[in-house]
Design goal:
The protein is of the alpha/beta class. The chain has one domain (about 1-99): 2-Layer Sandwich (Transcription Regulator spoIIAA), CATH 3.30.750. The chain contains three helices and five strands. It has helices at about 20-35, 55-70, 80-90; strands spanning about 1-10, 10-20, 40-50, 75, 95-99. The protein has a five-stranded mixed beta sheet. Helix 1 runs parallel beside helix 2. The longest helix is centred in the middle third of the chain and has 16 residues, at about 55-70.
């Protein structure tokens, strides 16, 4: 997994590629903590995410919860069919803003 993070005008833009699994979710969380993800809108670009595990889903859900608690938004963009199906089966499609 590779990630690119950029904070701009109160939004943290995150572009992720590869697999978002147990190991890479922990790596991404460390990157997010270093960048500072509290009290900002979060804009995920999933264009190049090919797989997401339950650990990746937990991270996304934790970020959604954090955003809601601070009155911010989390958006997931450019999700492929396979990953979108995982979100749907897990029941996350109704909880997340997927565009």
């Amino acid at each position: 997994m590779q990630s690119q993070l950029k904070k701009e005008n109160g939004t943290l833009f995150i572009a992720v590629s590869g697999r978002l699994d147990t190991v890479t979710s922990m790596e991404l969380k460390k990157d997010l903590e270093a960048e500072g993800y509290e009290n900002v809108d979060i804009d995920f670009d999933f264009t190049n995410v090919e797989y997401i595990s339950s650990a990746g889903l937990r991270l996304v859900l934790a970020l959604q919860k954090q955003a809601m608690e601070t009155g911010n938004q989390l958006v997931i963009r450019n999700i492929n069919k396979v990953v979108k199906e995982v979100f749907s089966v897990a029941g996350f499609s109704k909880m997340l803003n997927i565009v």
